[in-house]
Amino acid sequence: MNACFSKLGAAAVLGVGICSLALSTPARAIDFKAGDWNFTVSGEINVHYIYSSCQNASSAVAIVTVGGACTGSDNGSNVSHVSNGLLPAALNFGVSTVQNGIDIAGHFGFYPGISTNDGGSPNLQQGAPAGSNVALGTTGLDVRQVFMTFGNKNIGTFTLGRNFGLFGFDAIINDMTIPGVGVAGSASTASPSNTSLGSIGFGYIYTDTLAQINYTTPDFAGLNLTLGIFDPLNSLTAAGTNEPKGTPGFHGKATYTVKFNPDMKLYVSSSFIDQKQRYEVTTTGPGAATTQYGYNSFGFDVTSKFDWAAFEALVSYYHGSGLGTTGLFVLSDDGLGHKRSSDGYLLQATYALGPVKLGVNYGVSQLDYANDADRAAVPNLLRRNSKVTGGAYYSLTKNLTLLSEVSQVETKAHSGGSNDSTNFNIGAYLAF
User: Fold this and answer.
1) Can you spell out the DSSP letters for 276-289?
2) Closest to 9 measured CA to CA, from 140, 82, 116, 109
3) d(CA 167, CA 192)
């Protein structure tokens, strides 16, 4: 995996990072030199037919969550879409040069999709009316990455700009469903967005793209350390108004790679994330008042990947306090400044038979109450999301992969109710 990232900086693009999955390792589509500068262009396109069999409406349970098993309506429980999967499409531009012994690079990552998104983020359906998927619509463009790097092998590397975060990155970049679909997510609704869930919220929290400034040490016999700050994100607190933060967020990561022989390698990483939250809640009526709340969010993860010839095994675990589930700081507290704890894990094994890779992964994400008052106020809060995905990935050429997956999904509430769904996808992934 590190070899794929070395030419693009310490935190490579999610689309280009597909090469770590060993589906295919194509050269960049365009790579040329002009004066002292090198220019590169690469990208990917993925398209899938996604069929979901959702929980029947008559037996569905209302659960407070973001992402989970889909539920049907009175008109039926089956949903079909043609859409992107866990990745939107990607078009990545890179520039690099060496000046005064310093390696300098810049990167721009553009992520269009094929689903109708008439405005705003292509990961969130917007339009008139909101959430529509109607005639004469258009897709959206997601600019996830704009960052620069500078440094060298002796002094290390500085990364500045908007890029993927450190916490949770190794879990998603090694998720076998990244060229596919995994859990269907919004593709099980009337208006699909340009991304499915994969294993997001089912084994790890989405790393997200953050405005950040990081420093990565030189390589110490396979060991690398990264430490940085990032622009703090607001929490999704239902009843509160977020306030400006007095300090940035902090994150860090340690990675270690050891090669036992040409066919056997072990990669281990651990990262953390730390950020303060501040918001206020205003009550109305007699005794109206405004109260300020705040808490410190912290999370860490540990990921290990073992490669032995055609066999790969992945184990990843995370724990958070005030971190939430599915996305960073989503459902992270009770709305009164009391933190909820969360944890989860992803287990995965794949085996390549010539051009065919077969794989299975199992993921769990759990969310706990802040206190007894939180339990009484939200009895149907998400307790556990779990899923198992089986997939087959066939490299038709070095650039084109045909694939199919099936995912069984279960979402449980603390109150005891649960919803189950199954989704199937078949499609193609092109990297260039």
Assistant:
1) EEEEEEE--STT--
2) 109
3) 27
Distance in angstroms (rounded) separating the CA atoms of residues 331 and 64: 9
Report residue 194 as tokens.
């340009």
Give me 324's structure tokens: 């939430």
Provide the residue ranges of all domains of the chain, joining segments of one domain with +. 2-431
Cβ neighbours, 10 Å, residue 99: 9
Burial class of residue 302 in the structure, from the number of CB atoms within 10 Å of its CB (0-12 exposed, 13-18 middle, 19+ buried): middle
Read off the DSSP letter of residue 234. Answer: P
2-431: CATH number: 2.40.160.10
pLDDT tens, residue by residue, 187-228:
998 888 889 999 999 999 999 999 999 999 999 999 999 999
> Residue 87 phi/psi, 5° resolution?
-100, 140
Low-confidence residues of the chain: pLDDT under 50: 1-26
Using the structure block, give the residue that is written with the tokens 């509430």. Answer: 413
Distances (CA, A) of 43 to 35, 215, 245: 24, 26, 36
Contact call for residues 17 and 24 (beta carbons, < 8 A): no
Among 266, 245, 267, residue whose Cα is nearest residue 255: 267
CA-nearest of 118, 131, 109, 113 to 47 is 113
Could you tell me how many helices (H) and strands (E) the chain has, helices first?
Answer: 3, 19
Question: CA angle, corner 105, sides to 101 and 107, nearest 5?
Answer: 175
Cis link prior to 112 (omega < 30° from 0)?
no
> 59-88, pLDDT tens digit by residue?
999 999 998 999 998 888 999 999 999 998
CA–CA separation, 86 and 184 (whole Å) = 8
Q: How far is CA 340 from CA 74, 91, 125, 179, 326, in A?
A: 34, 38, 28, 32, 13
H-helix segments, 41-185: 169-173
